[in-house]
């Protein structure tokens, strides 16, 4: 089926980086002719420090609430005000360490869309689920929470990142075939929810993507780019990964 999904590479700095790295990325990426969409997600305090850049910015989390007495939280409108166009929601590190449920993740995604941020919604299975060969029902549950809460139009505004937890920060990447299988499943599931919904949605792969494995992963028909952790902290590695998505 025809589609015009422009590939995307998003970097998740996690709790890393500093003003120096902000400056490096702003300067170095400008000299590159990259044809994929590029998103950098630094710690939110650095968002307003990217003064002159030619890529998009994203946050790594957002509150599901609008405003009020919620110490330490940041709202969609605040993130937008300091330059974010994207926000990662449901990263497995937050699902695990902050006990974020799929329902809460869906609420965050919904608020993000309503407030004008594009959510990058992370889904992905832990190792025991892969070993039990129950990946598809596991991912289907995570997607169901989204499709139950978001309208089809809101779903169309989302990016989905498949990030098998066993591949995150471990150096153990999914094979291109494993990634393709799950991406194709996600697309089929979205298509079953609403006609052709899956065809227009960007599906990123995340989990130990490096300059030397990116090309193979990104050349799979249902892989539209990547969400990059560790390798997004070195500008030359990140640029090489972006080139693999061109
Ligand atoms: C991530 O945390 O989103 C990620 C993909 O990390 P890494 O690339 O380091 O595995």
Description:
With 246 residues, the chain is an alpha/beta fold. The protein has helices at 19-30, 76-81, 92-97, 102-115, 127-131, 135-149, 152-156, 176-193, 197-200, 214-218, 235-245; strands at residues 8-12, 37-41, 56-59, 86-89, 118-123, 159-162, 203-206, 225-228. It has an eight-stranded parallel barrel with strand order 1-2-3-4-5-6-7-8, surrounded by four helices. Helix 10 (214-218) links the parallel strand 7 and strand 8. Helix 6 packs parallel to helix 8. The radius of gyration is 17 Å and the shape is globular. It binds phosphoenolpyruvate (PEP). Phosphoenolpyruvate is lined by residues 12, 163, 168-169, 206-209, 227-231.
Q: What is the third-level CATH name, the topology?
A: TIM Barrel
Shape call: globular
- Total beta strands: 8
Count of spatially separate domains: 1
Strand order of the largest sheet: 1-2-3-4-5-6-7-8
Tags for this model:
246 residues; 41% helix; eight-stranded parallel beta barrel; 8 strands; TIM Barrel; alpha/beta; binds phosphoenolpyruvate
What would you say about this model in short?
With 246 residues, this protein is α/β, with parallel strands linked by helices. 41% of the residues lie in helices and 15% in strands. The chain has a single domain, classed as Aldolase class I (TIM Barrel, Alpha-Beta Barrel), CATH 3.20.20.70.
């Amino acid at each position: 089926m025809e589609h015009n999904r422009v590939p995307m590479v998003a970097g998740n700095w996690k709790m890393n980086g500093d003003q120096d790295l902000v400056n490096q990325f702003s300067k170095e990426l400008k000299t590159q002719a990259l044809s994929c969409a590029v998103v950098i997600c630094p710690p939110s305090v650095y968002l307003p420090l990217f003064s002159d850049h030619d890529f998009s910015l994203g946050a790594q989390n957002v509150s599901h609430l609008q405003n009020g007495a919620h110490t330490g939280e940041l709202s969609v409108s605040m993130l937008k005000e300091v330059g974010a166009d994207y926000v990662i929601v449901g990263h497995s590190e937050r699902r695990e360490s902050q006990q974020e449920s799929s329902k809460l993740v869906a609420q965050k995604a919904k608020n993000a869309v309503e407030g004008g941020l594009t959510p990058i919604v992370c889904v992905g299975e832990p190792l025991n689920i892969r070993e039990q060969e129950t990946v598809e029902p596991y991912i289907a549950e995570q997607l169901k929470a989204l499709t139950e809460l978001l309208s089809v139009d809101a779903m169309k505004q989302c990016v989905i990142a498949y990030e098998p937890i066993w591949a995150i920060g471990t150096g153990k990447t999914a094979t291109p075939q494993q990634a393709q299988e799950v991406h194709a499943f996600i697309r089929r599931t979205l298509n079953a929810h609403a006609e052709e919904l899956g065809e227009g949605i960007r599906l990123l792969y995340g989990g130990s993507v490096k300059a030397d494995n990116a090309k193979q992963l990104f050349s799979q028909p249902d892989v539209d780019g990547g969400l990059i952790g560790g390798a997004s902290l070195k500008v030359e590695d990140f640029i090489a990964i972006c080139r693999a998505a061109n």
